[in-house]
Amino acid sequence: MLLPCLLLSLVTGSFTSRIIQSAGDPDSHLESLRGIVEGPLAGWNAVLYLDPSLEPPVWECVRGLLAGRNASHVLVDLGSDGALWSEGQPVDLLRGAFMVHVVVFQDDPRPFFEAVSLQWNPQYLLFFSVSNETKKALLLDDTFKGVERLLLVEKTSLKDPGSEPTSGMFTSFPFEARKIKLIGSWDDAAFPSREDLFVDRFESFRGYEFQLGTSLDDYPYLYKSKTKPKGYGDGVEVEMLDAMARVLDFKYNLTAEAPDRKWGAFENGSWTGMLGMVHRKEKNFTVNYFSITGERVDAFDASVSYWMEGFGMSMLSPPPLPKWRGVYYPFTPSVWLALTVTFVLVLIIMSVQDNMQPVPFLGGVGSTWPYLLRAMFNNSIPRLPKAQWQRLFVGTWLLYCFIVSSAFTANLVAFLTIPIFPERIQTVKELAKSDYRWVCMFDYGEFVPGALRSSQDPHYKALGEKLDLFSAYGACVKGMRERTHANIESYSYNLILLFVDYKVKNSYMLSEQLYPSYLCWYFQKNTAWKYKFNHGLRRLVESGLVEYWVKIKTEDFLGRGFERRQQLQDTERDIQALSLEHLQGVFFLLAMSWAAGGLVFAAEVLRHRCPMRVTIALRRPSAGNSENT
Ligand SMILES: *[C@@H]1O[C@H](CO)[C@@H](O)[C@H](O)[C@H]1NC(C)=O
Ligand SMILES: *[C@@H]1O[C@H](CO)[C@@H](O)[C@H](O)[C@H]1NC(C)=O
Ligand SMILES: *[C@@H]1O[C@H](CO)[C@@H](O)[C@H](O)[C@H]1NC(C)=O
Ligand SMILES: *[C@@H]1O[C@H](CO)[C@@H](O)[C@H](O)[C@H]1NC(C)=O
Ligand SMILES: *[C@@H]1O[C@H](CO)[C@@H](O)[C@H](O)[C@H]1NC(C)=O
Question: Which burial class, exposed, middle or buried, applies to 406 when counting CB atoms under 10 A from its CB (0-12, 13-18, 19+)?
Fold first, then answer.
């Protein structure tokens, strides 16, 4: 985003007229200012802070510099109100590397900068002092502690006090014993680029011990170490910290949990949990499971993202279907329907064909259907029709029956022994529409419950309405075991919690995740040395180490090849012998057929016994007719 208007003069009337005045010869110190602005800083956008008490020669020099400059610049009056000024400025101007900030001053500029908003945090800040007294105290001042690259240029007499004063360049190294160091004196040839001018102040942390606001209950990222003494952690974050600690030379001290036992959210006007500790400046940064959100980025400095994860929903696998259903499972309902329709059609055609023969081959529907069914059940056919065309028809029917019955028997063995599961819920939409009464979550101050309830998405909102908050995991898992609840928790943690802590073996994670987001570390707002960690995190991500550690640490809990085993468990079981339960379906069929047979038999007996005469009487005339024709 480019600034809409880069030339933004905040100069007052007298201020402008002062610049135009001209007097005196430029001294060597002012020549250095010209050298810096036209040398390493040429072409860079700049914010120039000018002290109203500068002397006329300085104004003259500055005026000349501005006239010759190519890049955009913003002028700021150090005598104005810093709070008022910073309020109206775009973020690109106040923060980051888009502009180089240059302060030219005679009197102490601190009052202005103490008033600016928290958003003010340039990456490059240059103090150019025209005062005769040393201003080195500025380099260690808390007001400028968040600036990544800091430089002070002031008059010094380097060799002996009698000689011509040169412009000394100083910077501070906060992690070193002799904190303020002279980098050199200005020389037009010695500092060709901006990076030469602004040296890296945090090359090493010199064994500094950082205080981390953490919670050691965050599988697989950060948890209490099983092998090391109390207070030590283990997990993905520890691996990352250790790897960086070796390169950057720092130590760290973890916190077991936040004093208020919360995770970290903005509540009632203040930050709670681990983020609260960092915000109150009790701790330097936090490395737990925190995703990047706009609200947090406003109040903290976020590192680059190192991993992506969302909230996972876990629930029990639905119970397998009853085993007797294995009998009809080889075919889908539509195949069964097609088979029935085909049979009825063939039966009708066969009966019609039979009726058209001079001498009926089978004689009526009553004997046609058992004849057709024989082939279906792999029984031989006692005799074939005499007419060639009818033989052809029966022949194709036999082929059809052969294929269908082979397919059925081949599948049957498999379906009898493997448990058949109904379709699982896999997405938020399916869960929202399912008859699951509740979803539950352990309420430790995450943003998810609030976000779900106020979601625009109808399915997320439906979940929010079903949400049941518990004050412990136990209650939540109990609900899950009773198949009334689905449990929401950050994906990896959820997995480990269920399989390791609660040993719920027959559960699964929905494949869709809620709020998938980028994880990062949160530092105090305006942390000058954060970029060192950004650099380290990027290296770890790009080398694939973070991904590797997430896998390794998860497997520490779940065992190797967990995912594969989980998948296998659903599709394939150990070889099983057929039990009575598996064959239940066959016996059902047998019983039903016998019942049907019994019914038909009873009906026939009744027909032959009681109304025999009536039937005979009814039949006679028709029999006579047929004989006549
Ligand atoms: C200004 O910038 C343009 C493009 O970057 C360059 O061609 C030109 O020479 C510059 N002029 C001066 C005076 O530096
Ligand atoms: C600074 O020193 C110069 C000579 O080195 C002197 O002329 C000038 O008056 C001094 N200014 C102040 C404010 O002390
Ligand atoms: C580091 O943490 C331990 C507790 O784990 C604490 O006793 C110790 O004082 C901490 N060190 C510092 C320097 O704060
Ligand atoms: C926030 O305020 C509400 C109402 O005043 C109160 O019920 C709640 O406990 C407060 N939360 C925190 C974390 O202080
Ligand atoms: C780290 O935090 C401690 C407070 O726990 C603070 O005293 C110290 O200055 C911080 N260190 C840095 C480098 O900011």
Answer: exposed
The Cβ of residue 321 has, within 10 Å, a number of other Cβ atoms equal to 13
Strands laid side by side in the 522-523 sheet: 285-286, 522-523, 301-302
Q: Report CA-CA distances (Å) from 109 to 81, 103, 135.
A: 12, 8, 10
Q: Using CA atoms, how far apart are residues 376 and 404, in angstroms rounded to an integer?
A: 8
Strand spans (E) along 413-525: 438-442, 467-470, 485-490, 507-509, 514-519, 522-523
210 Cα–ligand 5 center, Å = 7
Low-confidence ranges of the chain (pLDDT < 50): 1-25, 158, 622-629
Q: How far apart are CA 125 and CA 103, in angstroms?
A: 8
Q: Check: pTM over 0.70? Answer yes or no.
A: yes
Q: DSSP for 270-323?
A: EE-HHHHHHHTTSSSEE-SS-B--HHHHHHSEE----EEEEEEEEEEPPPPPPG
- Tens of pLDDT, residue by residue over 330-354, are 888 899 999 999 999 999 998 888 8
> Candidates 225, 232, 253: which one to mutate for ligand 3, based on the most atoms within 8 Å of Cβ?
253
* Ligand lying closest to the C-alpha of residue 266: 4
Answer whether 509's CB lies under 8 Å from 312's CB.
yes
Q: What is the pLDDT of residue 75?
A: 94
Specify the pLDDT at position 8: 41
- Which ligand is closest in space to the CA of residue 68? 1
Which segments of 323-383 does DSSP mark as H helices, in order? Answer: 333-356, 365-376
Residue type, 158: L
User: Does the beta carbon of 261 sit less than 6 angstroms from any atom of ligand 4?
Assistant: no
pLDDT tens digits, 93-144: 999 899 999 999 999 999 999 999 999 999 999 999 998 888 999 999 999 9
Task: Tell me the per-residue pLDDT of 373-405, one tens digit each, with 9 for 90 and over.
Answer: 888 888 888 888 888 888 888 889 999 999 999
Alpha carbon distance 374, 29 (integer Å): 113
Give the Å distance between the CA of 130 and the centre of ligand 2: 10
Instruction: State the angle between helix axes of 236-248 and 530-542 in degrees (0 to 180), rounded to the nearest 10.
Output: 120
Q: Does ligand 5 lie within 6 Å of residue 530's CB atom?
A: no
Q: Which ligand is nearest to the CA of 273?
A: 4
| pLDDT at 468 (0 to 100) | 87
CA atoms within 13 A on the CB side of 142: 3
Pairing of strands 485-490, 307-316: antiparallel
d(CA 291, CA 129): 43
Best residue for ligand 5 mutational test, from 173, 205, 284 (most atoms within 8 Å of Cβ): 284
Cβ-contact 600, 592 below 8 angstroms:
no
91 to 10, 88, 94: CA distances (angstroms): 17, 9, 5
The HSE-up count of residue 514 (CA atoms within 13 Å, CB side) is 30
Residue with CA nearest ligand 4 atom 2? 268
Query: What residues contact 118, with CB distance under 8 A and at least 6 apart?
Result: 525, 526
| pLDDT score recorded for residue 129 | 93
